[in-house]
Amino acid sequence: MNQEIKATEYILESIKTGKQFEDKGWTLDAPGETDPTLVRAIYKKTQIEVKDDSFGIYKFSDWLPVKKILKGSSAPVTYKSEGLAKCLGLENLYITFSGYWPEKGANFRTCSFKETEAYSVCARMNSDMKKVLVVASAGNTARAFARVCSDNNIPLLLCVPEDNLDALWFDEPIKNNVRLVVTKSGSDYFDAIHLSNLACQVEGFIAEGGAKNVARRDGMGTTVLSAVTKIGRIPDYYFQAVGSGTGAIAAWEANLRFIEDGRFGKNKMKLMVSQNDPFIPIHNAWKADSRPMLPYNDTEARKHVEEIIAKVLSNRKPPYPIAGGLYDAMKDAGGDVLLANNTELKEAAKIFKEVEGNDIHPAAAVAVASLINAVKENRIEKNAVVMLNITGGGEERFKKEYSLYFLKPAHVFDINPELEKVKEVLDKLF
After folding, report:
1. Could you give the residue ranges of the DSSP H alpha helices within 336-411?
2. Is residue 30 part of a domain?
3. 367 in any annotated domain
4. Where are the beta strands (DSSP E) in 220-360?
5. Is the pLDDT of residue 1 over 50?
6. pLDDT at 5
7. Which of 51, 89, 370, 394 could form a disulfide with 274 if both were Cys (CB 3.0 to 4.6 A apart)?
8. Is residue 410 in some structural domain?
9. How far, in Å, CA of 56 to CA of 65, rounded?
10. Whole-number Å distance between alpha carbons of 394 and 235
11. Has residue 57 been placed in a domain?
């Protein structure tokens, strides 16, 4: 790809106070503010002009906080469902697919919508940053960042639970600028986040930022940019499975931008987010109408993570209470937190493959299952415009078509390592 883009023009805004300020290159927090708040990108172009497909995800660069184009990206693809729509009796069901489905134009080499985050976050980085990016992940995010950073020579440290190593597969070997450290077997995503926080205290390492990084959220928001520009209007309902809820926050923010754009309607899509029962902390907080997350015993949480099939949905400290987080998004847009158990998600995955023609990730199957349940319960009008966000798929097919390489850990840490030990290991890696 030889295209170049000018750096997108935007400023940042504190959601809590509305104060606006310049992005200093990697601003994750509102300067001088102590109350927890997300910051949001306010783009100079209020009406989006979508470029052609050769730009990959950067076709949406008007609403991405990026300075350059990285090679290898693919944008989410939206199409009007026939099979699943007929099954459910829905007249206007649109599926936004991020994964491997070449016939539909989706060429995500890691088969997950986490690529939308990685291509946006890494394109926000200045060439002169000279820092190692640190990313914690339960699997799909690590795979996406590893692929993007390897292909574009960006130094990266990944922190992943050892039990999730099977998620780190690739169609070609990952270069040495990407290093992986893990928390030992029996640990979970929460422990990997703790390890990444320690790594960020070491000189020369910088936190990717998770939900606080506007590039991550706006990268994820390209699913909604794909859907709205394809459908020609803002949908009535948005279905997605959530672990952190960052994708749903991103969907809400994209929705607000489209309202300001003025060409796609003024409605807010109801956020119908779902969790894999029995790991349901967001569901429990929402049903209790509680902004703070409810107490969740460590042992019980780890047990629930082991029980669920959709492991990527196992975030214990989601950006739910923070100003501009999931609680605020759902209070503003409306919607609900739904549940699907392992049996329901397996059945939903089977149905999707039969009627739509591709395999989907367990997390995406949770979203499909919750849509099926919502229709059964008469919660969705037959003529409503519904966006179903399929956040990963085509993996079974991809693995049949390509030889696989696995990324091996450079070090296995105890669940609660000392900072000195982390520093000693990282000094040898980079």
Report:
1. 342-356, 362-376, 395-401
2. no
3. yes
4. 237-241, 270-276, 335-340
5. no
6. 83
7. 370
8. no
9. 15
10. 25
11. no
Two tokens, residue 26:
């990697």
Contacts of 271 (CB under 8 A, 6+ apart): 238, 240, 248, 251, 252, 329, 330, 333, 334, 335
Sequence-distant (≥ 6) Cβ neighbours of residue 290 within 8 angstroms: none
Residues 6+ apart with CB under 8 A from 6: none
Residue tagged 């590893």 (tokens): 146
User: Total structural domains in the chain?
Assistant: 1
Select from 218, 234, 232, 233 the least CA-distant residue to 268: 234
pTM: 0.96
CA dist 128 and 50 (Å) reads 29
Distance CA 270, CA 266 (A): 13
d(CA 183, CA 411) in angstroms, rounded, equals 9
Report the CATH number at residue 235.
3.40.50.1100
Question: Given the structure tokens 């950067």, which residue do they identify?
Answer: 58
- Structural domain span for residue 327: 77-110+215-398
Rounded Cα distance, 397 and 364, in Å: 16
- Residues counted in the chain: 430
pLDDT in tens, 243-295: 999 999 999 999 999 999 999 999 999 999 999 999 999 999 999 999 999 99
pLDDT in tens, 204-220: 999 999 999 999 999 99
Strands 385-390 and 335-340: unpaired
Q: How many CA atoms lie within 13 A of 132 on its CB side?
A: 22
Distance in angstroms (rounded) separating the CA atoms of residues 279 and 313: 8
Q: Is residue 150 within 8 Å of 177, Cβ to Cβ?
A: yes
Q: Where are the beta strands (DSSP E) in 221-346?
A: 237-241, 270-276, 335-340
Q: What's the CA gap between 237 and 399, in Å, rounded?
A: 33
